Amino acid sequence: MTLHAPIPAPEKRPLTVRLATPRGFCAGVDRAIQIVERAIGKYGAPVYVRHEIVHNRHVVDRLKAMGAVFVRELDECPDDRPVVFSAHGVPKSVPAGARAREMLFLDATCPLVSKVHKQALRHQRLGRHVILIGHEGHPEVIGTMGQLPEGAVSLVDTVEDAERYTPPDPDNLGYVTQTTLSVDDTEGVIAKLKERFPNLQDPAADSICYATTNRQEAVKLAAPGTDLFLIVGAPNSSNSKRLVEVALKAGARQALLVQRAAEIDWDAVGPLRTVGLSAGASAPEVIVNEIIDAFRERYDATVELAEMAEENEHFLVNRELRNIALTHEDMAWVNG
Ligand code: SF4
């Protein structure tokens, strides 16, 4: 009988994971999720939610399991159950419709989106036609346009749009932007508009939010020289898609949006030495950890932080829900 020595396990190759910080849940998303959870705690299931509360399947599925029912429009909700409006904001016609039906509704619009609504209304009050810089069809854009009467807002997306745009009165214009745009691209659109319309008025406060800005800056810091940059986020999440673009522009060899670790095609991404990792504002930290574990299974991975800023923002939930306690399990979810 011949004895064979045990075959040693192949050595894992070293890999550096640059973890962009801050990443993931922002204060507006955290608040919106808490509003749905607390509404279920206070009123029982089902609680209806108009549109995905945030653009993340994992979050939506978890809330469904707790008793949330997601609908596209208000007319799919019964009169006698509470309805929550998503963090992206809604046109004025939506709460008006709920009031007309005497429904109980809870508005989870992020306070920073509401701030943009106020800036658009301020431009209009001062007699200006409003230019909204944003992506056509995005729920936030639909909500912001719906704050003003039909025809009072024009949508401009790209520099090419800004070159072609014909305003009703070129000397009486004000702009606002979607909160989740690329900071750098938006500067280009604003510069083009100002070149054509020198009297174009800024909003009184920045429209692109702190969370979008910080996540993009952290990706810029982490991306140079990476073989792959993964952004955890949904294909319909505007801020997540912008992070993919930012990573590529900042020097990542390839950048991909992924919703779960199982989506990573390890053969297609090729050999890796340094990877970047971040998450859009609607992506929970549990999935970031799942992806780090997937790297650790295949590589001798070292995680280092690429930290740009510390975030301490918290937004209070609606007054009627403040005394509803979250369970320990809920808090673990929210905090990652
Ligand atoms: Fe609010 Fe910004 Fe988060 Fe959108 S990305 S919910 S605007 S904090």
Topology:
Elements: E1 13-21, H1 27-43, E2 47-50, H2 57-66, E3 68-71, E4 83-85, H3 93-100, E5 105-107, H4 111-125, E6 129-133, H5 139-145, E7 153-156, H6 159-164, E8 173-177, H7 183-196, H8 210-222, E9 228-232, H9 238-249, E10 255-258, H10 266-269, E11 274-279, H11 285-298, E12 299-307, H12 328-335
Parallel strand pairs: 1-11, 1-12, 2-3, 2-4, 4-5, 6-7, 6-8, 9-10, 9-11
Helix pairs in contact: 8-9
The structure holds iron/sulfur cluster (SF4).
Describe the structure.
- With 336 residues, this protein is an alpha/beta fold.
- It folds into 3 domains: 13-24 and 210-307, 4-hydroxy-3-methylbut-2-enyl diphosphate reductase, catalytic domain (Cobalt-precorrin-4 Transmethylase, domain 1, 3-Layer(aba) Sandwich); 27-111 and 313-334, Rossmann fold; 113-196, Cobalt-precorrin-4 Transmethylase, domain 1.
- Helix content is 38%, strand content 18%.
- The protein has helices at 27-43, 57-66, 93-100, 111-125, 139-145, 159-164, 183-196, 210-222, 238-249, 266-269, 285-298, 328-335, and strands spanning 13-21, 47-50, 68-71, 83-85, 105-107, 129-133, 153-156, 173-177, 228-232, 255-258, 274-279, 299-307.
- The strands form 3 sheets. A 5-stranded parallel beta sheet has the order 10-9-11-1-12, sandwiched between helices. A 4-stranded parallel beta sheet has the order 3-2-4-5, with helices on both faces. A 3-stranded parallel beta sheet has the order 7-6-8, with helices on both faces.
- Helix 8 runs parallel beside helix 9 (238-249).
- It is flat and about 85 Å long.
- The relative contact order is 0.19.
- The model has no long low-confidence stretch (mean pLDDT 93).
- The structure holds iron/sulfur cluster (SF4).
- Iron/sulfur cluster binds next to helix 1, helix 4 and helix 8.
